[in-house]
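Table 4 source record.
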Amino acid sequence: MIDIKTLTLLPQNELLQASTLELKTWRRYRQLALRFLPYDAELSNRMTELGVACERRLEALRWAADNLGLGACVDLPALQDEPARAHPERFFVVDGATADQLLQEAMAAAMEAHRIARQLQAVNGTPELERPLLEYARQKQLECHILMESQTDQQKRA
């Protein structure tokens, strides 16, 4: 059996995985911010703030890549919204059950992203990426905490 801790990824692979994950996360929070807007402005603002945090993480990853001469690894498409995939008549959150479901899905995605961030940190073999990946994992953990608080707040309202 292969021990994952003995494997290392090339820095360009780590940067590409982290930045691709972060772009998907950014898109999800942008869409959630819009979907929650008619239901709960505070929750919508929280999703917007999480999206802004994604933009900052993408910039930090881009800076780390540039410092290693690997800027092309994080040259992702410009931050732009993807078309909504939900049914138009059910796009906006209008009830507690939908809000709960979306928050649970966001929490599951955030926990998976945190797991991946920790895994990238664990298999890192590039000293120059140690600090950026450590900070990336820490921020993903904070993101999970914020979503847990949001879930708790939502359940209290229900």
